[in-house]
Structure formats: structure tokens, C-alpha cells
Design brief:
seven-stranded mixed sheet, 9 helices, 64 strands, about 5% helix, mainly beta
């Protein structure tokens, strides 16, 4: 369906022009929204939907929307707007309403009623409809309708600067968001359900009208769309998709108010492109934003990115970076120059969300010689390998933007060679050629295209290096075309082998995957080894300093990652490394004895590393040339099965981890795996099966193949955990929190949490090292471990490369200065793959522990002090079943802490669960309250939403009994890109 015309209905347009001042004559000036709404307010979450395949964003309000015709139109309520007799609005007068949410006849959609007052009228002397009637003022309904949902005072819109407008209701102030003109007609919103009436999890709702379309309305009539049980979330992203698939659509009478605030380009998947570097392959991503340059110069012109710091040079934790141009704007560039913005110590993260706010606040700005490659992309975009660059949120004029962070990059470009025939047609099938890669001094991800003209009989990929082009004397012509193509993999150059996650008996297991071909003579039952020559003196002592010798390398016939040890006996006067090839062994006539010892030692490019590992390379010799390998130790020649899941059409199940049934220590373990193809039904959901038992119980077909892979397992850990929300009470309103289970250390006899150190790396100019993960030295179970971490600032040299240091021991060995900061963060360390019931409640982040990866949820800054949590017990010491715990502070208040000191409250035997829902209730009833030494880590993520907190009776109250639990641990990520924490709120 094509985009609709942008004109509104004529009647609305005319009234909008004639009566523009009727809408909000007293618009309040709002302060910028903070991370979360102040106490008593609500932060309304930005919700993602689909519009014609593009991401669209809206806010959802939960006031009931009345309709007299089953949802075709909205029934408005009157809003009274004051004018003098000459039709000029009364300055300083707030609009008046006669109903608020919960009242009969309330509606978020208001019909403007013009109230004419005398010329001597004093603004705000009338504050109710009753006063309008008493004074006999003329009231004239106007065919102008506005969308202004009344909300609690101090409420905010997530990721928006829009403030509240004040009005009057029966002499009391009310507050609303003004979303402007809106017709009474509704528009459809499509909500997807399976046949059993359960919503499709993670499916965004779909709309077919956005602001500017003729039929747009923020009031949506829910249309239920029934999809088959094998439907995959977000396969449908438009009404066209729904109708093409023939899904049943059923209009309902449910109306919701969801003003759309933004629509973006559809998410894009960026694929890898192959190229050549010195006769070896490289892979890179290609971004299509124009790259600006000063005229005639191959130097990239950067745009400014604003990074906020406190006065002591520490970045503002959780603050997202700010830009002032996006793709399509003049001056936009994928290359950003860091502008350091210094803010006061009292500054709260994400208060400022635009350059205009920085300028208005007068914050000092220092321009740094730090440049980063961060192409802005549509939200939801991804890379072929997500580990290649961090996907990060930023701010643009108060709105969210998203980018991939490829790290530091100079402004200078490097040449990329593109081959053309004489008629200027590109050579089909020819990969582009570069002459520098990451790690070399002249590398840049921004390339200046150099046109290479080749003869008509040139065969694609005959030339694979600059030296090939020069040797052939092909004409090379620099152009003024610049492109952004970050290289992420280089063949023959040092490689980082990624750690891959699999399943072992429902637990996460981790292995490295090497891509050398594994030979077998029996279809994959056993591996055919190659010989490795190990040198010994006659007394069977190894020759010290002698490197082992091999006679084949990857690509040679007979090469194998599995080596059979061949003992070479040399004379006592043999000098280490005087023999460096098998030919020399033969020439010298040394005795060679095969031994039944087999080792797993994949040969890799020099300088290669293992992701998240400190294991280094071992040097060997091949034909007098040095070769390098990782030594994974002894391994049998027998293989073990690895189970890889496919649908019936032979496509792999996306997102499914492979499954093994043997790990190191098991009798049948081998790092050489024989692939077993497992065929699953089309409606199979990834990672439903996590063990061989799951596969066999489900009766899935298993087919052994002859494919062998070398995947040494290095770690297996507890299964990922899903952390659910627990309900509690705060001043008669509901709160929700997560509960973590590690003991919380405290000073003896005091309700103060003892933090553990977390090491955050900075350059000498105070900028955090981009791409560096934070480091801890204790994990749950270690002495001294704590959920609460104190930031220790580690200063590293300017040439330091991110993640070179991955442990506290390495920091000490390097002698880097460490400054202890008064910054504390609450971030529970959890098994990899763990999740929260609402992932938006806290970022899931990676860190380092003694060279190994750890993972945590980041709940942000927290004091060392605790707050009381009240847990109710009967006189016999048994908890009151069904009673939710009670707190007396929430995020945003000065005394809030996610670390709670348990206070035992003793209630009588006839107490009814949830009769008490606040501390004042407990005090009024004079229940005995006893502080305990138990501390728990329970971050609150939702606050009350009512304007006036009304006491609930036991019959009205609901929720699950909150079991008191203690914390898990976490780590602060102080990189250039921050993370915003928002209060959780349910929406349509």
C-alpha cells in the first residue's frame, strides 16, 4: 500500500487555522525529562510498532476511551478555553475540564468549548465548570478536537522533551500532554494473536496511518489478527503483509490512545563483502551514507559528537552521546569528532538530549583530537556478525538514534582499488583490493576509490594485491569518491577466533571453532592425524628450546589439526633449532618413532588470539619457516557427535545453538565433532531443545554426516536464568522489582553495603577507552564479592588497544595508575544468556574476570546505604502468605537504594494479606517492626501511576507473595556510549 496523501480533512484544516489559539493558551514550559519521572509521576514508555515495513514509535495511555458506536468514533469530553469578546485568548488562563480519568464521561479526546468572558476578567479567577455556569459566561462548542490525556503530575514521556500543560478541574490543578488536533474517527491498529487467543510474543503492533496521512488518528481501534501457530514474530510488518497472508482480521470495540511521534526507515541487515589484501581474503561492511571531504582532499570531514563528563574528567554514567546531524542533513558524516562537554556534579544522566540544550545550559565544550567511526542506521538494523561492532543508542534533537560503533579512526583515508575494463564497466566477480588492514599504521575504514583499468581479456581475481596491479602496470586513477567500509576479518593476517555458545545438557557451553578442514578415512568416525616431530635426546629428555616440526600446513594435502607425535631422537651434542624441517630430519638420519599420542593443535596466522582468553600461541617449524598454533592438548582420534538443527527444507534454525553431549572430563569427549543433522518441524522455536535428551524425547530425525569440525570446549556453566518481576507496595500503589540471590556484604553491625572494586579504563585525557570491557577480580562465591561495585579509574597510555587488558593482574603487571572514585553501581553478575522478564529494565553487559567473560545486568548508580523493606510475619514466625513486601522509597527519591535492609513486621493471626500497603498503615496499626541483619538486592523498575494514591482493600489488592531474596553482582560500562535506564510501564 502506498503512502497516503498528507492533507488533513478540510474541516479540520480550516478550524486549525481559524482557532489555533484555542488549543493551549497556557502551555507550560517543561524542564527536560530525566531518566525517570519524579515521585508521583509516571514515565510513559515509547513503544515500537510497524508501519508499512518501517519502525514507528508511539506512546500508549491507559485511560479508558469512550465510544458510542462500537469504536468507529471517539466520544469527546468538553474542554473550556477562555476568550475575550474580541476572540483573543485570555493570557495566563489555564483551560478547564469537568471530568478526570475515572469519572463518567472522561475522554482523552476533548471538544473545544469557547468561553467568552468580559474584558475585565482576571486570568484563572475561574477554575471550574461550575464557576463558568455561576458567572453566566457564554459557552460555544467548536468543531475542534484535541488529544490531551490527563496524567499524574510530574509525568514524563520516555525519550522526549515534551512537557506537561496545566489545566483546572473543580479548582484543582490537572496536567496533560498536548498531542494537538485529532479527528473523532478512529484508525485501525492490528494486534496479532495465535488461534488460542494468546498474543504473539515480541510481535510489534501494526498500523497503516501515521501523522500526515489523511486517515491518521491517535485513537486506534484494535483489530485482532489471527495467525497460525507456526507464525514467527515480526514476519508481518504491514497491513499488506497481513492481507497477503490471508490472516483473519476481526475488529473489536477496544479503543486506545497511542499518539505516533516518529517513523523511521526499516531495519537493515548489513552483509559482509569480500575483498583482497596481499593475496589473502578480507571481509568488510559497506555503508551507503555519503562521506564528506574538503574539496580535492582525500581527508574525511568529521561531524561533532557530544560526550558528557563531570568536572573530574569521568564520563557521565548512563548518558547517551548526542549528535546534531543525521544522514541526509548537511554536514552529516559517519566519522565523528568527540566534543567533551563538562557538566555540573549534580547533573543527572540523559537530562540533556540535544545540542540545543547543551548550548542553552552554557556547558563548556572542548574539542578533542579523537575521531570515531559510527555510521547512523535505522533502528533495529544488524550486522551479519553482531560481534563485529557495538549497536548503540544516542540522542539527536531529543530523539533516539542508533549507530554501529567501529571505534577510533583517523580522518585520513586509505586507497581501495576497484577494477574496470576500458569501457568503464566494472569487472564482474572481481573483489576490490586494499593494501592495509586493521592494526597497521595507515589503516582507515574510510577508503578513497582508485579506479584500475584492466585489458578486456582480464580474468576476475587474477590480481589479488596492489603488487599484482603494479607488476602488470595497470593504470591507476584516484577519484574523489570516498566510502566507509570497516574491515572486520583478514585471511592470513592475525585472527581473533570468536567464542561460540552451545548447549550441553541444558547448560551453556563455550567452544572455539577452527575452519581448517578435518580429514577422515572412515566417513567421520575417526580423524586422520598428521605427524608432528618432537625432539628428544637419547635419555628421553626433551630438547630444551627446540620447536616442534611439521611437514604440512593448512591447505596442503594431508594437513590435520590433530597431530600424531613422532619422537625424533637426536645426539647429545644436538643444538636446539638447528633442524627446522622434516627434510633436515631425513638428511641427518635421525631416528623417528611414531607414538600413540595425539594432540589438537590447529595452525593459525601469526598473532592470532582467542576471544576472551589469555592463551597464547606456540611456535613450530615448517620447511624452515615459523608456524604458529594453539595447543589444546591431548585428544583421541575418535570423534564425538554435535547436533545441528535444520528445518525440513534444509535451512538451519536461526538463533539455535548447537548441542553436544560430551564435555572435557567425560569419557567420550573429543574436540573433533562429527556433525549430526537434526530435522525439526517448521514451527520449532529456537533453543527449545537444549540437550540430546530433548532431541530424542521429541522424536526428531537424526542423520550423521561426514562433516567434521574442530571445536575445543573451554567452559561449561550454569544454565541461563530468567529473572521475573516481584510485586510490592509503596504508599498504597504497586511497585515491581527484581530479586537477586547472592549474599550482600555489610560492615559489622551496620546497614551499609561493602562494595567490591570494578576497574574502568581511561586514556590520559580522561576519555574512557572505547570498546574496553570493565574488569572485576571477584565473582559470586569468591570472598569479597559484592553486588555493589566501586569504580576504580585505571589510566592507560594513549596507544593502548581496547581489551588488551582483561584482568586485574594485568593492570598490576603493567603498573597502570589506579584512582578510586566515589561512584558506586548495582549490576548483578548472572550466567551468560540470562534475561529479565522485561529486557528494557536493565542493559545486559559483558565484562572481564581474570581473562574470562562475565555477564551482568546494569541497574545503574546506587549509594552504599540501604533502605528498609518491610516483610510481614505472623507471631509464630511464618511469613504472611500472599502479602507483598512494603517499601517507603522509590527511584528518584534521595533515600532510595536497591539494597534493602529487611525489617520484620509482626502482625496478628487474623491479619488479612495486603490489608497493609504502606509504612503508614503499619505504623497506624502499631505492628512491631524489628530491623534484621539481612540485606537484599531488589532494584525497583516500576512506580505507582495514580495521581492520588488510594488505599486498596484486601479484596482489591492482587499480586504474588514476594519472597525475600538477595543480590547478584554487576559492572558499570563507562564507554563513549551510555545506557539510559527508564521506569518500566506496560503498554498495548
Amino acid at each position: 500500500m502506498s503512502r497516503k496523501h498528507t492533507e488533513r480533512r478540510n474541516s479540520i484544516l480550516v478550524l486549525a487555522v481559524a482557532l489555533a489559539l484555542l488549543i493551549t493558551p497556557a502551555l507550560a514550559q517543561a524542564a527536560p525529562a530525566a531518566q525517570s519521572a519524579p515521585a508521583g509521576g509516571t514515565e510513559y514508555a515509547l513503544t515500537y510498532g510497524w508501519y508499512q515495513g518501517q519502525s514507528t514509535f508511539y506512546y500508549s495511555f491507559d485511560n479508558a476511551v469512550p465510544s458510542s458506536d462500537g469504536g468507529v468514533t471517539v466520544t469527546p469530553a468538553p474542554i473550556y478555553v477562555f476568550f475575550y469578546g474580541d476572540d483573543t485568548a485570555v493570557p495566563g488562563q489555564h483551560n478547564v475540564v469537568d471530568v478526570v480519568p475515572g469519572d463518567s464521561g472522561y475522554s482523552d479526546l476533548w471538544q473545544v468549548h469557547k468561553v467568552t468572558v468580559p474584558d475585565d476578567y482576571t486570568p484563572d479567577s475561574v477554575r471550574s465548570y461550575a464557576d463558568i455556569v455561576t458567572n453566566g459566561y457564554t459557552v460555544t462548542p467548536v468543531d475542534v478536537f484535541v488529544n490531551c490525556p490527563i496524567v499524574p503530575e510530574n509525568s514524563t514521556l520516555q525519550y522526549s522533551q515534551q512537557g506537561l500543560t496545566q489545566g483546572w478541574n473543580d479548582d484543582s490543578a490537572v496536567y496533560y500532554f498536548d498531542f494537538g488536533l485529532n479527528p473523532v474517527e478512529t484508525a485501525p491498529i492490528y494486534v496479532l494473536f495465535y488461534g488460542d487467543d494468546t498474543p504473539v510474543p515480541d510481535q510489534r503492533n501494526i498500523i497503516d496511518d501515521i501523522p500526515g496521512d489523511a486517515d491518521y488518528s491517535a485513537f486506534w481501534r484494535v483489530h485482532k489478527v489471527t495467525v497460525p501457530d507456526d507464525y514467527v514474530a515480526n514476519t508481518a510488518t504491514s497491513l499488506d503483509d497481513i492481507t497477503t497472508a490471508g490472516y483473519t482480521v476481526t475488529p473489536t470495540s477496544i479503543l486506545v490512545n497511542c499518539p505516533v511521534v516518529r517513523t523511521e526507515g526499516a531495519p537493515e541487515m548489513f552483509d559482509l563483502t569480500s575483498g583482497w589484501y596481499q593475496n589473502g581474503g578480507v571481509e568488510y561492511y559497506s555503508f551507503n551514507n555519503p562521506v564528506p571531504s574538503t574539496e580535492g582532499s582525500p581527508v574525511v570531514t568529521p561531524a561533532p559528537i557530544y560526550v558528557l563528563f563531570y568536572g573530574d574528567g569521568t564520563p557521565v554514567p548512563f548518558q547517551h552521546n548526542i549528535i546534531d546531524v543525521v544522514p541526509g542533513d548537511p554536514g552529516y558524516s559517519d566519522l565523528w569528532q568527540v566534543h567533551k562537554v563538562t557538566v555540573p556534579d549534580a547533573y543527572v544522566a540523559d537530562t540533556v538530549r540535544s545540542y540545543a540544550q547543551i548550548a542553552d545550559a552554557g556547558y563548556p565544550i572542548d574539542v578533542l583530537d579523537v575521531f570515531v567511526n559510527c555510521p547512523v542506521v535505522p533502528e533495529g538494523s544488524s550486522l551479519a556478525d553482531p560481534s563485529d561492532a557495538a549497536y548503540t543508542q544516542g540522542w539527536y534533537q531529543g530523539q533516539t538514534v542508533f549507530y554501529f560503533d567501529f571505534g577510533l579512526n583517523p580522518t585520513e583515508t586509505a586507497p581501495i582499488y576497484v577494477l574496470f575494463y576500458g569501457d568503464d564497466t566494472p569487472v564482474p566477480g572481481q573483489d576490490n583490493i586494499v593494501d592495509t588492514v586493521p592494526g597497521e599504521a595507515d589503516y582507515s575504514a574510510f577508503w578513497q576509490v582508485h579506479k584500475v583499468t584492466v585489458p578486456d581479456d582480464y580474468v576476475a581475481n587474477s590480481a589479488t594485491s596492489l603488487s599484482d596491479l603494479q607488476a602488470a602496470s595497470y593504470p591507476i586513477t584516484p577519484t574523489n569518491i570516498l566510502v566507509n567500509c570497516p574491515i572486520v576479518r583478514t585471511e592470513g593476517a592475525p585472527q581473533e577466533y570468536p567464542l561460540t555458545t552451545g548447549w550441553y545438557q541444558d547448560r551453556s557451553t563455550f567452544y572455539y571453532n577452527f575452519d581448517n578442514e578435518v580429514p577422515s578415512s572412515d566417513g567421520g568416525v575417526t580423524v586422520t592425524p598428521a605427524p608432528i616431530y618432537v625432539f628428544f635426546y637419547g635419555d628421553d629428555t626433551a630438547v630444551p628450546g627446540q620447536h616442534n616440526v611439521v611437514d604440512v600446513v593448512p591447505g596442503d594435502p594431508g594437513y590435520s589439526d590433530l597431530w600424531q607425535v613422532h619422537k625424533v631422537t637426536v645426539p647429545d651434542d644436538y643444538v636446539a633449532d638447528s633442524v627446522r624441517s622434516y627434510a633436515d630430519i631425513v638428511t641427518n638420519g635421525y631416528t623417528v618413532t611414531p607414538v600413540d599420542v595425539f594432540v589438537n593443535c590447529p595452525i593459525v596466522p601469526a598473532g592470532s588470539t582467542l576471544q576472551y582468553s589469555q592463551q597464547g600461541l606456540t611456535q613450530g617449524w615448517d620447511d624452515s619457516s615459523a608456524v604458529y598454533y594453539f595447543d589444546f592438548g591431548l585428544n583421541p582420534v575418535e570423534t564425538a557427535p554435535i547436533y545441528v538443527l535444520f528445518y525440513g527444507d534444509d535451512t538451519p534454525v536461526p538463533g539455535q545453538r548447537n548441542i553436544i553431549d560430551d564435555i572435557p572430563g567425560d569419557a567420550d569427549y573429543s574436540a573433533f565433532w562429527r556433525v549430526h543433522k537434526v530435522t525439526v518441524p517448521d514451527d520449532y522455536v529456537a533453543n527449545t531443545a537444549r540437550s540430546l535428551d530433548d532431541i530424542t524425547t521429541a522424536g526428531y530425525t537424526i542423520t550423521p554426516t561426514s562433516i567434521l569440525v574442530n571445536c575445543p570446549v573451554v567452559r561449561t556453566e550454569d544454565a541461563p536464568e530468567m529473572f521475573d518481576l516481584t510485586s510490592g507496595w509503596y504508599q498504597h500503589g504497586n511497585v515491581e522489582y527484581y530479586s537477586f540471590s547472592n549474599p550482600i556484604p555489610t560492615t559489622e553491625g551496620g546497614p551499609t553495603v561493602v562494595p567490591a572494586p570494578i576497574y574502568v579504563l581511561f586514556y590520559g585525557d580522561g576519555t574512557a577507552v572505547p570498546g574496553q570491557h570493565n574488569i572485576i577480580d571477584v565473582v559470586p562465591g569468591d570472598p569479597g564479592y559484592s553486588d555493589l561495585w566501586q569504580v576504580h579509574k585505571v589510566t592507560v597510555p594513549d596507544d593502548y588497544m581496547a581489551d588488551t587488558v582483561r584482568s586485574y593482574a594485568q593492570i598490576v603487571d603493567a603498573g597502570y595508575p589506579i584512582d578510586v572514585l566515589d561512584v558506586f553501581v548495582n549490576c548483578p553478575v548472572v550466567p551468560e544468556g540470562s534475561s529479565l522478564s522485561d529486557p528494557s529494565d536493565a542493559p545486559y553487559v559483558q565484562g572481564w574476570y581474570q581473562g574470562q567473560t562475565v555477564f551482568y545486568f546494569d541497574f545503574g548508580m546506587n549509594p552504599t546505604t540501604t533502605a528498609p523493606i518491610y516483610v510481614l510475619f505472623y507471631g509464630d514466625g511464618t511469613p504472611v502468605p500472599g502479602q507483598d513486601n512494603i517499601v517507603d522509597t522509590v527511584p528518584g527519591q534521595p533515600d532510595y537504594s536497591a539494597f534493602w535492609q529487611v525489617h520484620q513486621v509482626t502482625v496478628p493471626d487474623d491479619y488479612v494479606a495486603n490489608s497493609a500497603t504502606s509504612l503508614s498503615d503499619l505504623q497506624a496499626a502499631s505492628y512491631p517492626i524489628t530491623p534484621t541483619s539481612i540485606l537484599v538486592n531488589c532494584p525497583i523498575v516500576m512506580q505507582p501511576t495514580a495521581v492520588d494514591l488510594v488505599e486498596l482493600t484486601a479484596g482489591q489488592a492482587s499480586g504474588v507473595s514476594a519472597a525475600v531474596a538477595a543480590g547478584v553482582a554487576g559492572i558499570l560500562l563507562l564507554l563513549l556510549a551510555g545506557v539510559a535506564l527508564g521506569l518500566r510501564r506496560s503498554s498495548l
